[in-house]
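Notes, p. 3: input format for complexes.
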Amino acid sequence: MEAIRNIVVLTGAGVSAESGIDTFRSAGGLWEQHRVEDVATPDAFARDPDLVLRFYDMRRAAIQEKAPNPAHEALARLDREWPEKPGHDLLIVTQNVDDLHERAGAGRVLHMHGEHLKAWCTACSVRSPWRAPLIDRPPCPACGARALRPDVVWFGEMPYEMDRIYAALRRADLFVSIGTSGAVYPAAGFVRDARALGIRTLELNLERSQGSAWFDETRLGPAGKLVPAWVEELLAD
Ligand code: BV8
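Output follows (237 residues plus BV8):
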């Protein structure tokens, strides 16, 4: 098996589940409590901004009381140790909008669906770090307009930094998907892009996902156990 040098990791809500952050499609998940069309589309925001702002205010507050779990910590260890090897690189592409990868210490993190802890001004387009509620329409730190929205990619909106993601995939020797149902595109298509590029693919998930058939290997179990074991195995090689 040829040497692994460049790794792209994709994470989804399952990597934050053991930190107590709701997933979307598991039992009791966010999409059972709210209809996507009501809270996670531009139309929903235009139609009922208060409902959408309250939905994100609640989640933004919730993540600030949560802590990274062993899966985040193992990926942060990989982020520290793997690129130290000559010619090795790592990119953690996350679909998650929480900051638990960063709080665990990971640096190479790309939030393709945006971040809870940022507000995006629809007047001046500046994105500002943000931890407070938006329901009271606070002024934009850059321009003062009361026009802030969550800096989160809604359905029908273009995910962030797609070019950077595809460039990383083209250089990769290994693509690892952790804690995602493979339900949402374009993220759900990365495994197929990887296969087309001849890249080895590994899935770590609690249960089989919609993409499992596309992976060379699927390991089933909680991320808090599977990820530290996989990182240990990789770094021991
Ligand atoms: C776009 C931010 C194009 C908001 C999110 C028909 C066919 C194909 C595609 C489409 C279609 N109709 C529409 C589309 C496009 C659409 C899409 O894919 N829809 C799907 C539903 C069919 N996609 C989009 O709209 C995307 N944009 O395509 O733009 C475009 C082109 C040109 C110009 C403009 C635009 C944008 C998608 C982003 C939407 N925003 N989130 C927010 O967070 O509120 S998506 C949301 O779901 C999350 O961000 C996450 O990214 C995504 C997937 O969820 P998962 O992370 O996988 O979570 P889930 O709960 O589903 O699964 C958790 C998994 O973890 C499970 O498998 C579970 O078993 C596992 N698990 C649980 N516990 C553990 C665990 N694993 C390990 N350990 C555990 N302990």
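The pocket of BV8 is lined by residues 12-14, 17-18, 23-26, 29, 40, 95, 97, 113, 152-159, 179-181, 183-187, 205-207, 209, 222-223 (CB under 6 Å).
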